[in-house]
Write a structure and sequence with these properties.
Length: 182
């Protein structure tokens, strides 16, 4: 009779994702993951051909987590790109390790920043359509201008150099959008 599998792929995947959240994806090695999951490396390599395969799952879980974070974030601003920007900056503040993994490391998963942001929710396209509906001809250009500001604020959050309140941030983003669309 075969032994019952005590540590499943799902267990390993969940432990790897939690490591990414708490310690950073760069910390995920077979030995560290095994220790974190409370097992040997054998269950890891029984379920994954190599650590790259495991990290691919962590990346996918991180994308899903960001999509869910954005989906649940308050979207009360009517000004295009502000809701997405506020959620992005908040994500950097609340999930700094996942933010670094998704948005501040060289992406080897074949996705560019636009694909990650747009996600499965079409967040960027929705915001660009809002801008076009409000009379903006070059929504893509406005998005790029806004995104440089938003990404900079999020990175400053990561480094501890950002001290604006949420209300101040919202006002800054709304003012920037108005200035860019004049």
């Amino acid at each position: 009779m075969a032994r019952k599998e005590l540590i499943t792929k799902s267990d390993i995947r969940a432990a790897a994702f939690e490591m990414a959240r708490k310690l950073g994806a760069i910390e995920i090695t077979a030995r560290k993951l095994a220790s974190y999951a409370g097992c040997s490396t054998q269950p890891i390599f029984r379920n994954y051909e190599n650590m790259e395969d495991c990290l691919n799952d962590v990346y996918e879980d991180s994308l899903q987590f960001f999509d869910a974070f954005y989906g649940e974030y308050d979207k009360s601003s009517r000004v295009p790109f502000v809701n997405l920007g506020m959620a992005y900056i908040s994500f950097a503040e609340k999930e700094p390790n996942l933010f670094r993994y998704l948005f501040m490391t060289k992406n080897t998963h074949g996705m560019n920043l636009y694909n990650i942001l747009n996600g499965r929710t079409n967040a960027v396209m929705i915001e660009m359509n809002k801008a076009k509906e409000s009379g903006v001809d070059s929504a893509e250009l406005i998005f790029m201008k806004m995104w440089m500001l938003i990404h900079g604020a999020a990175c400053m959050t990561i480094t501890g150099d950002y001290d604006l309140t949420s209300a101040q941030t919202r006002l800054q983003l709304e003012d920037a959008y108005k200035a860019f669309t004049r």
